[in-house]
Design a protein that fits this description.
35% helix; 23% strand; alpha+beta; binds iron/sulfur cluster; 340 residues
Amino acid sequence: MSDKIIAKTDLRQWLASLVAGNDVIAPLGREGGPAQWKAIDGNQEIDLGAGQMVMAAKEYLLPVHDVLWRYETKKGEEKLEQPELPDRPTVMVGLRLCDARAISVLDSVYMDGRFRDPYYATRREKLALVATVCDDPRWSCFCTSVGDLDEWAKGVDVLLTDLGDNVYAAPVTEKGKQLVQGSFFKDPTEDQTKKKAEAWEKLKAMPKKPFAGKNITENVSWDAAIWDDMAKRCLGCGACSYQCPSCSCFDIQDITTGSLVERYRCRDTCQFTDFTLMGAGHNPRPEKKMRTRQRVMHKFKYQMEQFNIIGCTGCGRCIESCPVNIDMRDVLTALVEQAD
Ligand code: SF4
Ligand code: SF4
């Protein structure tokens, strides 16, 4: 694929050209708060340097409130309708590599070949990912300790690297090659290609945690002492999985307002007591210890066994959102130390 360079002053022009044939979603800054994922019309200044977003890129694929259907009776007439799903291609610009990897995790759950969730898959099949190489990882990030970034980079369509006044655009797929088109793109100089490679190596050299390189799947033990410690502290609030880019569980609810019934799905979490509560009253995970263990074992063992992919990308959101400072890095360190 032929790599290109675009001046930052031309970025808006590029995005406007993308908007002509695609829906485009990008980080938009806002006063008094963090940047948010928004559909853009090509006239806005997008915040490519927004870094990791509070809400992960899965927000587009698995909206917090996703209407499945609506049924309404009005003046004796019945109407059943399904929401419109995108029929135009969509380009998501500016997501971090960890969030792109999380989409690979979600793909394995929602469209693994045996099952195809039509709501997720329709959005995903039309989606192109234009990711950005992190130049300023957050204090809570540990991507390089749980994954191989060279491998993760194969899951995006275009990889952007910020070079100051310019952005280096490397198409990864054919779809990505089609996106990196226009007279504002130039061939990179040798110096620019070298700087891009240096930025990539710098990211990969991020300090590793004690569990890096260990086979975490084999070290996650059902009887580990860490589960008791986690259970004593955990409040069961679910913030960790609500913000997790790769958590995939949902609940289905109906809202009834007079003549209208709306069925929607929303995020759910294994950290809630009633997550596994069955209709007859039995709950296979009644204790908090069982639920805290489930979150970690699912990500590092069950998803590996089922889909051959680790269900955590080291984005650090669960660490930053936990009100009692439960830190996934400490949990993984304890697990590998216990196993040694
Ligand atoms: S478990 Fe935590 S660190 Fe891992 S992907 Fe989810 S939020 Fe990020
Ligand atoms: S955010 Fe912390 S306290 Fe809340 S459920 Fe997750 S681990 Fe427990």
